[in-house]
Structures are given as structure tokens and as C-alpha cells.
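step=predict obj=UPF0716 protein FxsA n=186
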Amino acid sequence: MPILTVLALMALPFVEVWLMIVVGGWIGVPWTLAALVALMVLGVAVLRRAGTKAFRDADEAMRAGTQPPGLLDPLMLMAGGVLLAVPGFLTAAVGLLLVLPFTRPLLRWAFTGWAQRRMSRMRDRMEAELLAQGARVPGQGPFGPGQNPFGGAGAPPRGGEGPAARSSSDGRLIQGRFEPVDDDKD
């Protein structure tokens, strides 16, 4: 698949120039240049607006101590702005698909579905490799996914003692005691 991507990127300038020549033959050179300049100005305007909105949203979220809202829409707007700013009609068409508000939800749905399928395949491949190496896959222990050996799923042990009661993480618990050292006894 990467070789097809490289070949497509190498062919893109030739296709763009060919499209410019074809459009210039249809509507004339001055109108073609005017259309290209208008698309570049639109791309820069979209980039400025999307960048300032993304920065403002991230700043408000950091001040409030929350996670910023969805990042996919600003990324699509910025990618669309860049594609509009690049001279060419093919890149402008793809950029318009990313920028228009009625096509973005469909693209968001398609991208999230693709990302979920890809992550699922990666997780399955990683678990298979770990099992082949003899390692324990997290969440696949002898008690089943999400099961606690002290009771039901995630239930703390009886009496409020044990590692699950003392630690909220799944990491190792190192028990010990702290004794302050007095440096003034010299």
C-alpha cells in the first residue's frame, strides 16, 4: 500500500497541471488564474479561522482543567485549508470536501470507523505476538478480562486489606516504612 501512495503523490503534480491546462482551455487563462487565486485565499482564510478556533478551544479547556473538545473537526478544517491553499483543482476539490460543514460528519464517521478497525487489528496482532512469545496479555489472566481474584469484577478483598485496597492502579505495590533521619546529631 505505501508504494501506491508514493506513486499517487508523484503523479499528483502532473494531474494538477493537466487539469489547469484543461480548465484554462475551457474558461480561459485569466479566469483559471483567478479561480486558483480565489481558492488559495479561501484556503488561507480557512486555515486562520480553524487555527484560532482550535487554539481558543484548547486554551479554554486547559484553563478549565478539562480535555479539549473533539480534535477531528479542527484537523479536517486545517487539512482542508492546506489543500485549498495548494494551487490545483484536484487538491481544492478534496479540500472543499474536508471544509464543507455538510460533508464533514460523513468523513468523521468514515474516519472513526476506519480508525477503530485499524486499532482492533493492531490490538489483535499485538496480543497474538505476546502470546506467541509466552507473555501474559493484559486483561487475559486466569480470572478472565477485568476479573479480580478476590471476588467479582473489580471487587475489593474482604476486610479492606490487600494490594487492591491500597493501590488504585494495576502496578506493583512496594510495602515499607519511612523513618526520618535527623542530620543535627553530629
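step=describe
The longest helix spans residues 29-64.
step=end
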